[in-house]
Each structure stands twice: as C-alpha cells, then as structure tokens.
Amino acid sequence: MCVDDAYRHCEQIMRSQARNFSFGLRLLPAPKRRALSAVYALARRIDDIADGDGPAGRRLARLSAIRGMLDGTAPARHDLVLVALFEAAGRYPIPLAAFGDLVDGCAADVRGSTYATFDDLVGYCRCVAGSIGRLSLGVFGAEDMEAATPVADALGVALQITNILRDLREDRLAKRIYLPAHDLERFGCTLDVDADGRFSDPPERLAELVRFEADRARDWFATGMRLLPMLDARSAACTATMAGIYRCLLDRIAADPARALASRMSLTTGEKSMVAVHALARARRGS
User: Fold this and answer.
1) With a threshold of 0.85, does the pTM exceed it?
2) I need a surface site. Which of 148, 157, 183, 221 has the fewest CB within 10 A?
3) How far is it, in rounded angstroms, from Cα 42 to Cα 44?
4) 193: which strand partners?
C-alpha cells in the first residue's frame, strides 16, 4: 500500500470535515500538515463512532477495536488512516497513547455520562480535546516538551468548553448534558427543552450560566496561549489560528447567549481566513 495514497486519503478527510482545524493546518510545512491530517482522520473516526447510530454496546465495541489497533493487539490490515498515522509516528514523537484518552472520553459520550462538578468536566475535556493538544504537540515539537505538554492540554480544554457552549442546544436534543450539575443548580437551570426544542429555563438565568462558563473558558485560553512562544513560527501560527477562531466564537457566544442557545454559531470562511492571516503575520514578526 502506498503511503502517499494513505496521506492523501487523510488530507481529504481533513479538508472535507475539519472546518476549523484545516485553516490552521494550511500554515504548516507539508510534512507536518500531512502528519496532523493523519492524527485528525483517526480522531474524526473515533468521534463519528461515538456519535453514530446503533446500539451503545456495538459502538463501544468499535471504540475498543480502535484501541486494539493502536496497541498492536488487533490487526490494522489495510487501513489507510492507520498506515498514514503509523508512518507519521515514525517521523515525529506522536504520543499515540493519547488516542486511548480520546477513546475513553468518547466512550463516556456513548454511555451518556454527566458531570457533577467543573473538575469532573475538565477531566472529560482533557480526554477528548487535551488529548488532541498533546498529539498535535508531538508533531509541532517544542524545545521543552515537558513544559509544553500541560499547556497544550490546557488549550484543548479551552477549545472543548467552547464547543460545549456552542453545541448546548444540539447536545441537549441528543439527550446529552455536559455542563456541571453544580453550576446548573447554582444558576437555577435544568436545560430542559420543550416540544419545539426550546429551553424552558428563564432566558436571563441561561445567559448568566453561559457567560459564567465562557469566563472559565477564557481562563483556560489564557493558560493555553502560553504555548505559542514554545513553538516554531509556523507551528505557532497554526496553533494561533485554531485558537483564535475558537476564541472569537467564544466571545460571540458570551456577547449574545440567546442567539447561541437558539442556533449553532460559527464564523464565516472570510472571518476564519482573517484570523489565519493575522496569526501568520504575527509569526513572521516573531511576536
């Protein structure tokens, strides 16, 4: 099997499905871009299994099978994504064990896990998004990987909290609640929805809850953005683009919670491109 074909397959997955991720990847040199496309392709597969149809037991079994392929206990056969990923892991110190954390987090989604406290939620975020930060760092590289790893993990947490706030209504309709029970109680919210899919909680309470969680995400962004000076210029520009897109999205959600709760917010392609342009310009200035 041709490794180039495997990478092309992963890049096609990335271009067609990674609306935000792909904007940052364009700023990387080709070898790193290819390696991260392989990371994304497997992460996308894991996420799609968790979100797919069919009995929970079957989805959990498929997640377990992926874990087996990664640790060598199950055959990978002629899997284009794994061919590309294993080749990339031979070039870069990609911590493939972090995919196990992603599988754990997605398995929690399949089981319908909920979170009592914010610390519980952070643990979940570290699994499903901090893991991606650590995997990406393996491709980016850093002079002090020990210092950079927890910072990359923190940036992943910030991105995932933003995702949760963006998808609050969509997740609730899918019978998923990620916000901590302690916070719901504090703001007097249940996140119950009516027959039309509208939240039944008082709008002002929901707005306060969303802004409270957005402030928490900003704190995680502040920590995570310390990663940028630890990276080379193009890796920093890639990271700044992805983080910048999500930070802009977070600010919009906090500015208009009612709109965010009614429909899924996003940035336009032009807006994402501008974030990428500014990130690349800052990287070239070395600031």
Assistant:
1) yes
2) 183
3) 5
4) 199
Q: How far is CA 88 from the centre of its chain?
A: 20
Strands (E) in 53-129, as ranges, are: none
Q: Per 3-state DSSP, what percentage of the chain is helix, strand, and coil (rounded to 5)?
A: 75, 0, 25
Amino acid of residue 59? R
Alpha helical stretches, state H, the chain: 3-17, 21-25, 30-51, 56-71, 80-91, 98-111, 118-125, 131-140, 145-166, 168-173, 181-186, 203-224, 233-255, 257-262, 269-285
Q: How far is CA 105 from CA 63, 100, 111, 176, in A?
A: 11, 9, 10, 13
Place of tokens 């087996």: 68
Kindly state the tokens that stand for 246. Answer: 């999500």
What does the chain come to in residues? 287
Q: Model confidence over 116-134: pLDDT tens digits?
A: 999 999 999 999 999 999 9
